[in-house]
Amino acid sequence: MKKTLIKILFISLLFSTAIPSTMQVSLDWAAWGNGARKAVSFLTENRIKVELGVAVGTALAWKMFNEYRKRKLEEEKKTKKEVLNSDLLQAAENNNIAEVNRTLLDGADIDQQDWLGCTAVMLAAHNGNPEVVKLLLANRAEINKQNNAGCTALIEAAKNGRLEVVELLLATNKVYINQQDKLGMTALMRATANRHLEIVELLLATEKSDINQQNRWSGETALMRATANGYSEIVKLLLATEKADINQQNKRGETALIVAANCGHPKIVKLLLANGADVNQKHGETALAIAAEREKHSIDLIGKQKFRDIIGQLLAADADQQIKCKITGISKQVDLKEYLQYMRETTPRILNKELSDEELPYKEKLKGLDKKNIPELIAEFAYSIL
Q1: Pairwise CA distance, residues 309 & 329, whole Å
Q2: pTM for the full predicted model
Q3: Residue spans in the chain of domains classed CATH 1.25.40.20
Q4: Sign of CA dihedral 22, 24, 27, 31
Q5: pLDDT tens digit string along 47-69?
């Protein structure tokens, strides 16, 4: 019976299979902290030879040493891997192909992320390192991984104008082309916002690209972004696909035409009208009402002329002249011609600062302005179209 007990205990201590983990930890610490004393005491009380107890205690100590050595080796291995991963990220960012290749061969994690969540392929895409991107893709780098800002390698390449990298990523046929970052921007929106014409063209040529995808926060499309920024060449590209929803509204109810009228881009207004934009679509007010209001509040002649051009184009496109505007601070529906006539009659009094109490808002706007810098509001334009 004693021999059987000794064998079971000895085998259990050596291989940690027969004794529960809690008992094993207790026995291990007893042997490690007090040598073999407690083990020997236990065995002596059970009439087992002390020599055998010493052997068991030694076995316990040896086992603990092996576990400690194993942990240290794992830590060293982990440290080495961290160094390799760091070297890979740095090499990818600096376009060091030889170093990228070495780290990969030594076992670096190709999809390891830095503190900003960027992987090697993201860094290479951001900095425009096509050869490094090609090498990483050949080693099966994950191309749709997102960093802390939600950007993928494609978004990084598109927003920074890295045409060759965009071509490489699209050629994989695995890239999520309509993925949005945390600001709700896709690769197409980013390329549009930064005026990278060739990349916009390349993305539009891809069947999977959704030209009408909306920013999940603002509802803005690539067409609206190009319009707001005044990039007429990109607006032409988007409209040329014949896939863009020209009357699509953002979350404020604005269409591309309303955005163009509000931002003062007459060339884009002309493009949109020529491609079937609804001149009377509203988001509370029409493009005409917004352009008229913007013209009224412009304080420089160049700005005024832009909005006058827009108003002329909208009227030529049969815009509804019943607009909502503020006359003497009161918001009401008026006819555009009535509005223009009012402004023509009011102009001399504005120039001479002879305003009534109900027109006090104008006084606030005129404070500090030199008389020669106060344009005749809309009067000049009124004469030209009435």
Answers
A1: 26
A2: 0.68
A3: 110-210
A4: negative
A5: 444 455 555 556 666 666 666 66
